[in-house]
Amino acid sequence: MNPIQSSIKRFILRLSLAVVLVLTINLLFLGIYIYRHQKSVSDEIAIIPLLKQFPQELVLKGNHYYLNHNVQIELDKQGMWAMLLDDRQGTVLWSYKLPEEIPTHYTLSDIAAFSRFYLKDYPVSTWKHPNGLIVVGSPKYSLWKIAYMFPYSEFKAMPGRIILIVICDLLILFLLYFIIDRKSIKAVSNVLSGIHSLAEGKLIRLREKGIFSEIATQLNKTSDLLKTRSIAQENWIAGISHDIRTPLTVILGYAEKIETNSSLPKDVQEKALLIKHQSIRLRDLVNDLNLITRLGDDTQPVHWKLFHPTTFCRELIAEFLNNGIPENYSIELDIEKGLEPVKIKGDTHLLQRAIINLLHNSIRHNPNGCNIYFRVYEKEQHILFVVSDDGKGMTSNEIETLRNRSHYLTESDSSLNKQHGLGLYIVQQIVKMHNGNISFEKSESGGLDVAIEIPIL
Asked: What are φ and ψ of residue 398, in 5° steps?
């Protein structure tokens, strides 16, 4: 998963958690509000408990009705009035602080209407009394009466519909957020892409727009600075290489003359041969420096072509042996049968450089001599070029460092690179350019085993 996808995933996760948290808090506050409201109604507007007291507290004595004093106090406290209607004639039999605009006679239709809604804008409640109907009125605009018939089937379907509404709300929330903030998401993706490319050593040019335009500008400046430094480094190495080649050619020429001059003493010829080998090593090091610079900034051109790996390997070993190797080294070539018609695609010059580096690596790091084995075979649609030796090899820690390093020289592996420096790093870079793989293992004889895998077309 790349950084952009990871960032979007974290953003969606955090947004989801935020939505769940907000919904939970809303439900919590809704529950508290309903509880407090119901408690407030029970404590301050206790109409039903008050109505229930009338059948016992409003009594007829002789020709007059008497209401308990405590009930009167509660009515006064809430600003309410009350009356008792006759069941048959609808006339007022008794009243307490009845407003002037309230009628004293009602029909059945009037009673049905005000019990459901309002009586002269007064919210009223009714309760049965042994002698008629108790009506208690609250102050105008103090209560809101709602009369609504709700189908039972709809009530049963309500939980599912509530869940559906919540899901739709969440989808709408996500959609609105992406629509409103899509520019910010694009700006973040732009910056993350640039950072990811810089981390891989690639040069970038970001759009300097949006809320992160300043960051994009700084990343572009960083990229330009890296490019300038890379060009300066390449030019410096190219200049140094050119200055070294001229005296190096002179040294090689004189060393060869001294080596082949039979009139000179034997020890002088041997010293001339040593000078020659060290000069060749220095020349290869200069070439490696030039190549590694071009590989690092992707300026090394790759000349792709189809070729037979069998012919390629035979020619490579023949040329390597013709250039001469010390007597205490031997090279054995082993090509799997049936590979003659197989072709692979690659740059033969770069692949030749990689394999020769591996061969030189076995010679250079086994000064007491060793046997080198070069095997070529097919495995799972890949051609494997394997260079192994029976020399002193490497420790497990050194092999692990070779597998994981991303640069030819770091503080953590400086001691290793004194032994296995530019050569193996160049091999790794060339294999990478060919979409192949490279592995480092201990050989069966205790030496080093390096395998290069190149895919077959």
From this structure: -65, -40
